[in-house]
Write a structure and sequence with these properties.
Elements: H1 5-17, H2 21-34, H3 39-51, H4 55-68, H5 73-85, H6 89-102, H7 107-134, H8 143-153, H9 157-180, E1 186-190, E2 204-206, H10 214-230, E3 235-241, E4 265-273, E5 276-287, E6 290-293, E7 297-299, H11 301-304
Length: about 325
């Protein structure tokens, strides 16, 4: 004697309770063939598919449940649970709110709506952080530098080239920090394309040893001065992580009392030009498991210089 849809549903429920969701789904499918307008069967199969992480099938069954019985809260609850697993939290909340309209006494639904609201906020914040991490635009934060360069070099290609060089150096450092939580202590030289012997002089100089002791630090900047002169460098941009600098080793007795930027980790970017010196600190923080660099903060280079002046001072330059 062939089983009825109801007896098949009971068998499916037994497999479901036992945790055999694949067998339960198969039995519910047999029951649906015998009773295709039974909303409960689609609801039960949706639950089985959800446990099997067959989310598209689970969502289709939840929608069918709602179509067959639009005033039954269970269909909307099933849909909300599936949408939650898809991380479509706003859609899940919308479905659960309808479920709550038909069953206002459900504490389970109310709790789930509250929890999903927080998950939706967290997901939105993670997306915002990823956008910050991937859409790096230091140029907009360095706009005051354009005016300063124009005053020194004139509004010509020289000032534009220097500005681009600083922006690119800073963005490269930020990308490295986002990807690895660190930057290497280096000097990026703006070499003269016509005069520099590129076989002898590289555009990047490692200075990580410069901060091991006062002696190594003291010998670093004379070396950089000579390197800049011999290589015909037109400018230099230093990138140094804060965590390798000891107080007051570098800042000559200034100590932490002069530091007004908190305990955040981060790195310094120091621009050295014959007629202009600038210093920025880019702090970082960790939020939602993502490391994010903050906007560059201008520092007083006279107080917080990472390395003393590299170039001989001039009021202007023709570069």
């Amino acid at each position: 004697m062939a089983e009825s849809g109801t007896s098949l549903k009971d068998r499916g429920n037994e497999f479901f309770k036992a945790g055999n969701y694949l067998k339960a789904a198969a039995i519910y499918t047999q029951a649906i063939k015998k009773d295709p307008s039974n909303a409960t069967l689609y609801s039960n199969r949706a639950a089985a598919f959800l446990h099997l992480v067959k989310l598209s099938k689970a969502l289709a069954d939840a929608d069918t449940t709602i179509t067959l019985n639009p005033e039954w809260d269970k269909g909307y609850f099933r849909k909300g649970c599936v949408l939650e697993s898809m991380e479509r939290y706003d859609d899940a909340i919308a479905a659960l709110q309808i479920a709550l309209q038909y069953n206002p006494q459900s504490a389970e639904v109310s709790r789930k709506i509250k929890r999903l609201g927080q998950l939706a906020k967290d997901k939105k914040r993670v997306q915002e952080l990823e956008s910050i991490r991937s859409n790096i635009d230091m140029g907009k934060h360095l706009e005051p530098l354009i005016k300063e360069l124009s005053e020194k070099y004139g509004a010509d290609e020289n000032s534009k080239e220097i500005f681009s060089y600083v922006v690119e150096t800073m963005e490269m450092a930020v990308k490295s920090w986002h990807e690895t939580d660190k930057v290497d202590a280096r000097v990026y030289c703006l070499l003269d394309k016509e005069k520099t012997d590129t076989e002898k002089y590289a555009p990047v100089v490692n200075i990580d040893k410069a901060f091991e002791s006062p002696n190594t630090h003291g010998s670093c900047f004379p070396f950089l001065r000579q390197y800049a002169e011999d290589s015909f460098a037109r400018g230099a941009c230093l990138v140094v992580p804060k965590n390798i600098i000891s107080y007051p080793q570098v800042w000559k007795g200034q100590g932490s009392r002069k530091w007004k930027h908190g305990q955040s980790d981060g790195f310094f970017v120091q621009l050295e030009l014959p007629c202009l010196r600038k210093l920025w600190f880019i702090s970082s923080s960790t939020e939602k498991g993502r490391t994010v660099c903050r906007n560059p903060e201008v520092l007083d280079v006279g107080v917080h210089e990472v390395i003393p002046r590299i170039f001989k001072e001039t009021n202007s330059s023709t570069l």
